[in-house]
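Why this split exists: single-chain examples teach little about how molecules sit against one another. For that reason, every record in the complexes split bundles all components of an assembly together and asks for one structure covering all of them. Below is a record exactly as it appears in the raw files.
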Amino acid sequence: MDVHVRQVDGQARLELRGRFDYTSHRSFKQACETAFSAGGTGEMVLDMQGVDYLDSSALGMLLLLRDKCKAASRSVSLVNCGGAVRDVLRVANFDKLFILQ
Amino acid sequence: MQGPTPAAMPRLRVLIVGDDNAQLGVVRRIFGERGHELLGAAAGCIGGAMVPALFSEHRPDVAVIDLQCESSGGYQAVEALRLMEDPRWIPIWCLGRAGAPATEEALALERGADVFLARPLNLRLLEARVAQLTRYMSRQRQFVRRRQYLEDYFELTEDEIKSARAIMDRLLRTQAYHSGRIRSWIAPAFKFSGDATVAERSPDGSLKVLLADGVGHGLSAALNVLPVCRAFQSMAQKGFSLPAMVVELNHTIRRDLPSHRFVAATLVNLDAAAGVVEVWNGGNPAAFMIGAAGEVTEAWTSSHLPLGVVDSDELDPQPDARVLHAGGELVLFSDGAIEAQDEQGLAFGEAALLQALAKAPPGVRLEALKFAIVEHLAGRAAGDDVTLVLLDCGAELRQARACLAPPVGETPAGAGDMNPRPGLLPSVLPFPGATVAWTLRASACGAEAE
């Protein structure tokens, strides 16, 4: 999976592309570190448009990000969730944890 | 455990093939002066016909073949050496003939030689070649040692995995259930399954079933579901209610597992005597009740977060209870079942799963679904663990009614097939060969079985 990090007005935007699964651990972690190191305080937005698959390991990574954001008092939202991604998030009831758009 | 240590400059075993002559003597001297071991030196010249035998006996690091000597067999010796089986790379050096045509080097290389030394020898070049060879061989020995280390490590790890698996199988009883009432299929994507199913009978005769899917794959996922399954087994045996179990399992994960190693779980309480089935689904695909004609009569979609994501007080532990109508098979499956991909990357999907169930008659639906998934995968390995569980609710109902009915004089419909041998109630064990002590509504049935 490729992750592109952009900073806009203190808001961090992570654009994810490809399969978001257990092999994405390193790239996702690095992207999160990059996003945090910029020192913004605004919302953390994950753009899921390019994600075609999401597994349970990816859900675990999302939870880790949520904890980090919580500690930094930043909100997390997932945007542009496609059909397959939305299904996985819905089955896991992650709409109770994240803002889904 | 530590890796192999770097190899020191090696002492090479040099097989020299050819008559005793001045030029070959120079080769011997250069190798000898640098402390390398000369094979066949004491015996003088070595003929080509002996090369394979000598090779097998001495396992040289390098062979030098004098193409000038009749007895060396020249190119034939080169070819014979090239055919020798050895996991190492064994360089073959050829010493050219005096006044040989310019094509000789190409010919030697074509037959399998690695280095060609023209006659008369250039001493400086020869020394440089020997030094280079020593460097190469030092690296090669390092590689060989590393490979050996990895092979040993691999073997050891395989053994450990095998024994870990045996322990997990015992602890989780991950053998599939094949009894009439509970049938299951688990196909791990890796060596360990991150999916597990547990079926236990509670003291009141109700059947408790868990389908757990630990985050991730392999051993770490299997380790996640282990404490969950153990806690479930023990609580089910003691007759705890589903809400109490949900809270405790969630607490167990929060307490014992690293953060975010959550477990998607479906808990079922099939209480045939009370005529209800309760399902709590946190993060698994929907559970379905399939009627006699193959139609979906009930569905329990995931309405909770998986276990271990939030603290227990943030969870709603109340199951979704429905009336247990006559007949029906309750179907549970992990996401691996519907995400199984065919060659084109197309997922099997819930619709195909329900269709496979609908098409098959009751009793063989698990096999039919298994077949449909295997066919969809078309020989490919599933990307995730696949688990299917089918519960025959009709059989549970019949048995419950049989147990509640007056035993004297009349045999309730359907009871006979469940109890072929009087006094051995119930006839169904969770899986073959298991000895599970359970008490089935002892007061109502007046019978205890083991």
